[in-house]
Specification:
single chain, 289 residues, Beta Polymerase, domain 2, 6-stranded mixed beta sheet, elongated
């Protein structure tokens, strides 16, 4: 059965946003609050996350961070919670609110707003004189080049996994690794070439920005990968089929990373690819000369 999301934000989205604004606007430590992502663009559907940002005054930063969980609990009953730090010094709190609704709550220091990665115009919910600092990042090529280099480095860092997991017959983990490579490396490498404004999106949030033809090709590859792991529920897939899966996958990923590197004038690690090709040829009998 195919489920079609409702167009536009739902009553659940609107209710969470309304409660959050009420909580944050009366907090003297908060200088501004705004939306980014699909809710700011007007492209949200019933499954969209709420990308909610606040600017916190510098002298209240430590106090607000100490209270961050208490703050998000006022948005609604928490069903799940996580958090991480971001490269420009912000803190990202990830919560699922009863409804359910996913909220990505970005806490940014007011004095650092102008240095944040911001590719789309924010939708202000309230502002206490910091909106001039909410600048859209217009010169993104240096960020793209850094991302291309990072993708290549990370992919080759994990290049031994196919042989290691295959040799240990950890078939479920190996299949998960193949799908991870598709989402974490192949799709971003394609987006960087076709729609560079979406290069920064995290895994599992970016496939929908592929063109129809690109998505068809990626899904065709995923279907072939699944076929190569037939028998995983029994004695395990055929080793030759698994080797074929990784030859298909890595050929595609390396090709797209080379193309992305060439487009943005990033040096592609040709010698590293050659060395990994030799290694996998010896270990999995793929990439025959």
């Amino acid at each position: 059965m195919t489920t079609t999301p409702a167009e536009g934000p739902t009553a659940i989205h609107n209710g969470v946003i309304k409660r959050a604004v009420e909580v944050l606007e009366r907090d003297e430590r908060v200088a501004a609050c705004w939306l980014e992502g699909s809710l700011a663009r007007g492209t949200a559907d019933a499954w969209s996350d709420i990308d909610l940002h606040v600017a916190v005054s510098d002298d209240s930063w430590d106090s607000f961070l100490n209270d961050r969980r208490k703050v998000v609990q006022e948005f609604g009953k928490l069903l799940g919670y996580g958090e991480t730090s971001l490269p420009w010094g912000a803190r990202l709190v990830l919560v699922t609110i009863e409804g359910p609704a996913r909220v990505d709550f970005y806490i940014e220091m007011a004095s650092r707003l102008s240095g944040a990665l911001r590719l789309e115009q924010p939708l202000l919910l309230f502002d206490k004189e910091v909106s001039e600092s909410l600048r859209v990042t217009t010169h993104i090529e240096p960020l793209i080049r850094a991302r291309v280099a990072e993708l290549s480095n990370q992919l080759f860092f994990g290049g031994m996994w196919p042989a290691r997991l295959s040799g240990r017959k950890e078939w479920g983990t190996l299949f998960a690794n193949a799908l991870y490579v598709v989402n974490q490396f192949l799709i971003p490498a394609i987006l960087i070439q076709d729609s560079p404004e979406h290069f920064f999106r995290p895994m599992f949030h970016n496939e929908r920005y592929l063109t129809d033809e690109r998505r068809r090709r990626v899904n065709e590859l995923v279907g072939k990968l699944a076929g190569c792991f037939a028998g995983i529920e029994g004695s395990g897939p055929e080793p030759t089929a698994v080797a074929t899966a990784y030859e298909l996958l890595l050929t595609e990923v390396w090709q797209e990373l080379r193309a992305a590197s060439a487009k943005f004038q990033v040096e592609y690690p040709v010698e590293t690819e050659d060395a990994m090709r030799v290694y996998l040829r010896n270990q999995l009998r793929i990439f025959a000369e």
